């Protein structure tokens, strides 16, 4: 009984520490105060100001850049990671283990090391840093996470289904699209969501590959804003909106996964 109470108390304290800052940001997004923690009455002015044309042009540009880069990087890394996972899965045990170890290095490696490495690579090759280099950098560090998301689905798949499809006259490409892809789709969706979140959240790699052509993402915008002595108040409603959207996507995704599980039970 004591252990159960202790475990539940520990869990609630952990959840409180994790989510209380987010709750505070959401609450103070409904007041006009420029300083977080100073409540001046309920208001939605910050939300209207956020979407007023021209008022925060640079912030909205940073948001658009962040979303488009994240979508491009997540889509490309999902395709590359899924293909790589299929290839790794079909290797011999020793080769699979070796490639799996190599795939884990970028994940365990520090972001700052990855950022510096990519920066030196782009400089040595002569690629002008900007939008393209940021997308390429995000694809680079997102792909290993997709591989890790897809591999467990391949291990759960019955390998005889693919062989049966080939025996029944399907081409390897038809078997891939009609057998393997449906089996690993949940892993691909999870990998896409993870890559999307990592890309939106990234700062260390982005700041080394963004160049000096005026391109900004949310992370670099917030960093530059903080160095000026404070954060733009409109960042509070923007953070609240992003949190709600991500939460809604997770709820829908989990609902669809649970529904699919019940369908096959």
TrEMBL record:
TM regions (residue ranges): 12-30, 67-89, 101-125, 131-151, 192-215, 235-255
Entry GO CC: plasma membrane
Location relative to the cell: Cell membrane
UniProt membrane topology term: Multi-pass membrane protein
Keywords: Cell membrane, Membrane, Transmembrane, Transmembrane helix, Transport
Predominant location: membrane
Domain of life: Bacteria
GO-annotated biological processes: transmembrane transport
Domain ABC transmembrane type-1: 63-253
Record-stated family: Belongs to the binding-protein-dependent transport system permease family. CysTW subfamily.
Protein name: Spermidine/putrescine transport system permease protein
